[in-house]
Structure formats: C-alpha cells, structure tokens
Amino acid sequence: MKVCVNGRSVELTNATSTKAAYALRHELGLCDVRIGCGEGYCGACTVLVDGKPTTSCDLPLWALEDKNITTVRGLGSPERPHAVQSAFVEEQAGQCGYCLSGILVTSAALLDTGRPLTEGEIRAALDRHLCRCGAHGRMVKAVLRAQATLREQA
Predict the structure, then answer these.
(1) C-beta separation of 26 from 10 below 8 A
(2) What confidence tens digit (pLDDT) does each residue in 108-134 have?
(3) Exposed, middle or buried: residue 22 (CB in 10 Å: 0-12, 13-18, 19+)?
(4) What's the chain look like in SS3?
(5) Is the pTM of this model over 0.85?
(6) Does position 13 have pLDDT exceeding 90, yes or no?
(7) Mean pLDDT over residues 16-30, rounded?
(8) For residue 16, what are the contacts with CB-CB under 8 A and spacing of at least 6?
(9) Which candidate, 75, 94, 101, places its Cα nearest to that of 133?
(10) Where would you tag: which of 21, 38, 42, 71 has the fewest CB atoms within 10 A of its CB?
C-alpha cells in the first residue's frame, strides 16, 4: 500500500488491519508518532491526513492509502523549523514532550487555515489533546506567537 509520508512516497507492507500509528512507528521508524491511550482519546498520536488532524492509533492503515501524511517531523527541520515548532521552544511550551507531536501538528493545521485565531479558538482546537504536565497556557501562547510570526512573514 502506497502512502506519502512527510513528502516522501513509501510502501507499507503491514496488514491493512494494523492501526496506522503502529505502522508509522514500527514499519517506517517514525518515533515522533506517539501512542498514548491507544483509543484515540488523548491526541498524542495525531498526524495530519491530507492536512486534517487525525488520531492514528485508532485509524486502520487502509484509511491512509493514497493520502498525504504529515507527522511532526514533516513540519520542519532542525535547521528550518515550522513557526509553531520555534514558538513552542521560545515559549517553553513543553515539559515531558510526550503529547507535543500531536499538539504541534494540530496547531500547524489550525494556523494553515490562515484566518485570525482567538485564544479561545486555539484552546478549543487543542482541547482534545491531553497533557498531564499542565503546559496548556504556554502552548496557547506559543500558537499565538506562531500566528504573529506567520503574519509578519506574509
């Protein structure tokens, strides 16, 4: 089965009944796809499927066929990070970091809408992501910072 992951076409050979997160982690070695609850409730496994935040631990692999998948690794590089990645570092918005992959891709998708976002809209968009460290306030500030950066660059 062919998928495009982080801009690269790849072939996945796992059974299509395998959950997407497990195939991405174990077959492609994408350790940035985290598995938390394993039931799609915590958001740690969120990836972008054709630009839409999607939990992958409860998603059958067959649902990814011919789709474009973006993990947090695909947002940017250490040399050229995505604005949201830079903002999270600048705001020190992560502590243990386990939930950050899903939060970062969801934030990037939110910013990709290009419309001005309020703090309340950001909080609502990130509400499904559980973070036991309690860094939610800093995460919202980071998304607002990234939004401002992207506006300056436009």
Answers:
(1) no
(2) 999 999 999 999 999 999 999 999 998
(3) middle
(4) CEEEECCEEEECCCCCCCEHHHHHHHHCCCCCCCCCCCCCCCCCCCEEECCEEECCCCCEHHHHCCCEEECHHHHCCCCCCCHHHHHHHHCCCCCCCCCHHHHHHHHHHHHHCCCCCCHHHHHHHHCCCCCCCCCHHHHHHHHHHHHHHHHHHC
(5) yes
(6) no
(7) 92
(8) 1, 60, 61, 62
(9) 94
(10) 38
On whether the CB atoms of residues 94 and 85 are closer than 8 A, the answer is: no
Q: What whole-number distance in Å separates Cα of residue 41 and Cα of residue 56?
A: 11
50 HSE (CA, 13 A, CB side): 5
**Could you tell me how far CA 19 lies from the centroid of its own chain?**
17
